[in-house]
Amino acid sequence: MAGPGRSQAEQEGLDRRFMAAALRLSRKNAGRTATNPSVGTLIVRDDGTGPMIVGTGVTAVGGRPHAETEALAEAGELARGATAYVTLEPCAHHGRTPPCANALLNAGVTRVVGAVSDPDPRVSGKGYAILRAAGVEVVERVLAAEAAEQMAGYLIRSLKKRPEVILKLALSSDGKIGMEGEGQVSITGDIARREVYLMRAEADGILIGIGTALEDDPALTVRLPGLENRSPARIVLDRQIRLPETSKLVAGVDRVPLYVAACAEADPYRRAALERAGVRFIGTETYEGDIALPELLEDLAALGMASVLVEGGAKVAKAFLAEGLVDRIVLFQGQEPIGRSGIVSPIDANHIPAGFRKLRDMRFGEDSYAEWIRDI
């Protein structure tokens, strides 16, 4: 149903515009809402002088309250007769608080525009059904592809019982990702590095192998003014527990969690020393001498992680690609070559695995950026 004095095409255009705004809003708490996705909600009413946003909400840090509750509280009585734009189907199951679908009904909302359906079996289709049964007009799948791409971590965790895996690599102009034994090598400029910090801020975890941890001694934190507290958990694949107690990773455990994935036969004294320093351990199974990655991802999902950013190095990247566990590929490319002694990247823009489609190209200063995703 079109709004007052508007054609169907005009209403569809408005719906897309407000949903795009709700999606932008939903990014505010990405990576901070525990097992719940970061959802955006707008309450929009039109009293004949044009649509006006009267309430906004985003899933709170920790996952509660939900976005609908926040937006309705801000709108108050102005929600009666209004339209709600929600980036994810309103929940339909009772917990300690009523379902969001019922909250929308009780507030007097008469139209709900949704983006993505919730795959959670307690919700899937039921939230929309509650609304329709009460006479609310429901419009589904507005900017659905954009919303699914943005909350891929939640959808993948719900459907596949593991986090979304984002493989991020920085390549030199000649396709190298570093130099053996040289520690960290600067490949991209400051603007691109800032974008990486933003990617970290929206992830639940950052994962590297022990080789990268030993050679680069990274901190793996978000180092942007005002976003320092958005650093996600760090995860190191360290089957034999070789991580030094003096590493930057261990030094930062009082501020950012650090998980070490190690096998049962690893040195118990090394484990005890790191545990005393505050390191948390994930017991892992091994397959052909390496950590069993599918089982590890299940464990990370059980810890509440919906998205994991794989940052290094070449061996770890190859392993995730070989297992078919990568959902998103992000490649930064710098302007300078490393030379023949560099470590060849396991992947480049001309050799993307089957099943991925290019999502976007961008530039950050002098560096290029390309991103591919696998449809869920």
UniProtKB/TrEMBL annotation:
UniProt cofactor note: Binds 1 zinc ion.
Pathway listed: Cofactor biosynthesis; riboflavin biosynthesis; 5-amino-6-(D-ribitylamino)uracil from GTP: step 2/4; Cofactor biosynthesis; riboflavin biosynthesis; 5-amino-6-(D-ribitylamino)uracil from GTP: step 3/4
Alphabetical keyword list: Hydrolase, Metal-binding, Multifunctional enzyme, NADP, Oxidoreductase, Riboflavin biosynthesis, Zinc
Any Pfam family matching the protein: RibD_C
Described purpose of this protein according to its UniProt entry: Converts 2,5-diamino-6-(ribosylamino)-4(3h)-pyrimidinone 5'-phosphate into 5-amino-6-(ribosylamino)-2,4(1h,3h)-pyrimidinedione 5'-phosphate.
The protein, known as: Riboflavin biosynthesis protein RibD
Gene: ribD
Gene3D superfamilies: Cytidine Deaminase, domain 2, Dihydrofolate Reductase, subunit A
Signal peptide residues on this chain, from the entry's feature table: none
EC number(s) given by UniProt: 3.5.4.26, 1.1.1.193
Cofactor annotation: Zn(2+)
Catalytic activity: 2,5-diamino-6-hydroxy-4-(5-phosphoribosylamino)-pyrimidine + H2O + H(+) = 5-amino-6-(5-phospho-D-ribosylamino)uracil + NH4(+); 5-amino-6-(5-phospho-D-ribitylamino)uracil + NADP(+) = 5-amino-6-(5-phospho-D-ribosylamino)uracil + NADPH + H(+)
Upper taxonomic lineage: Bacteria, Pseudomonadati, Pseudomonadota, Alphaproteobacteria, Hyphomicrobiales
GO biological process: riboflavin biosynthetic process
Residues the entry annotates as binding substrate: R200, L220, R223, E311
Family indicated by similarity: In the N-terminal section; belongs to the cytidine and deoxycytidylate deaminase family.
Binding site for Zn(2+): H66, C91, C100
Residue span, CMP/dCMP-type deaminase domain: 13-138
Alphabetized GO MF terms: 5-amino-6-(5-phosphoribosylamino)uracil reductase activity; diaminohydroxyphosphoribosylaminopyrimidine deaminase activity; zinc ion binding
Chain positions recorded as NADP(+) binding sites: A170, T212, D216, G313, A314, K315, V316, A317, K318, A319
Species this chain originates from: Mesorhizobium wenxiniae
Catalytic residues in the record: E68 (proton donor)
